[in-house]
Specification:
- By secondary structure, the protein is an alpha/beta fold.
- The chain folds into two domains: 163 residues, P-loop containing nucleotide triphosphate hydrolases (Rossmann fold, 3-Layer(aba) Sandwich); 69 residues, Conserved Hypothetical Protein Ylqf, Chain: A, domain 2, CATH 1.10.1580.10.
- It has ten helices and six strands; from the N terminus they run αβαβαβαβαββααααα.
- It has a six-stranded mixed sheet, sandwiched between helices.
- Strand 2, helix 3 and strand 3 form a beta-alpha-beta unit.
- It is elongated.
- The structure holds guanosine-5'-triphosphate and magnesium ion (MG).
- Guanosine-5'-triphosphate binds next to helix 5.
């Protein structure tokens, strides 16, 4: 079953972003460093068109460092400049400011050549929901000016803030596109909480996480849950995880839904370690 999520407020958000693009010099698209390619909204990128673009891979603290490096190289091969950050601690932010400065320089030089005063760079921060756009903005400003939250759909309208004398940032609501083509991409976006929880079943997403862990990081399953082996079906592994954790219901059976919920919770918090999905 393909997961899809395009609530009504996003139609309005899309229109607002499209109109606001005319007002900005640079667009920063924020991506989740754990799965930057799955977070790419091609509809948004088409709207950005030829505007200078900086890709920022946020939540680097939750991602595998080697993978993040490879993703940045891959984006560079596409001609996209990319920077990895942690918007909570501010790691990588100086590189973002540097990238904004370098990207704005040709525009600023043009203003000077025309004898005009260089005005602050206007930068839009956009991307899919819950990737940390508002947190990123707060971090750059150095105080909490935008509301943030652990669920998608927190920001509902655009908001301008002055970062420094030379930069103004616009926060925007998270934007999806009408149809996610691949089942795997939908599952990854659900795992990262980009997609609202009403649009998927937790057991389906937890089973997908088990599949990914078996393929990419079997040691996580073995060590974090002290599983002797990881044979059998994904469902059997989830059962074993639930039993190890003591998530039982009457009669000693495993509480499957609680196990799914807790596994997703642990992954999202980073308790399973730094795991990348793309
Ligand atoms: N670990 C970690 N968590 C982060 C980071 N940046 C943001 N978060 C968390 O991610 C969640 C979403 O952050 P927001 O800033 O509200 O995300 P948003 O992109 O503005 O979301 P919408 O407005 O809903 O589109 C919050 O719980 C943040 O604390 C980061 O770099 N690392
Ligand atoms: Mg927000």
């Amino acid at each position: 079953m393909v997961i899809n999520w395009y609530p009504g407020h996003m139609v309005k958000a899309r229109r607002e972003i499209q109109n606001s693009l005319k007002l900005v010099d640079i667009v920063i698209i924020l991506l989740d460093a754990r799965a930057p390619f799955s977070c790419r909204n091609r509809d948004l990128e088409r709207m950005v068109g030829q505007k200078p673009l900086i890709m920022v891979l946020n939540k680097m603290d939750l991602a595998d460092a080697g993978c993040t490096e490879r993703y940045i190289e891959e984006l560079a091969r596409e001609g996209l400049q990319a920077v990895a950050v942690d918007a909570i601690t501010g790691k990588g932010m100086s590189q973002v400011l540097k990238a904004i400065g370098q990207t704005y320089k040709p525009l600023a030089d043009k203003m000077l050549a025309k004898g005009r005063r260089v005005r602050p760079a206007r930068v839009m921060v956009a991307g899919v929901p819950n990737v940390g756009k508002s947190t990123f903005l707060n971090c750059l400003v150095g105080k909490k000016v935008a509301k943030t939250g652990a669920k998608p759909g927190v920001t509902r309208g655009k908001q301008w803030v002055r970062v420094r004398e030379d930069i103004e940032l616009m926060d925007t609501p998270g934007l999806m596109w009408p149809k996610i083509e691949s089942e795997e991409q939908g599952l990854k976006l659900a795992l990262l909480e980009v997609i609202g929880e009403n649009a998927y079943h937790e057991d389906q997403v937890a089973l997908y996480l088990v599949k990914i862990l078996r393929e990419k990081r079997p040691e996580v399953l073995k060590e974090k849950f002290r599983l002797a082996d990881i044979e059998g079906t994904d469902e059997e592994i989830l059962q074993a995880v639930g039993r190890k954790r003591g998530y039982l219901i009457k009669g000693g059976e495993v509480d499957f839904y609680k196990t799914c919920h807790m596994l997703l919770h642990d992954f999202r918090k980073g308790s399973l370690g730094r795991i990348s999905l793309d």
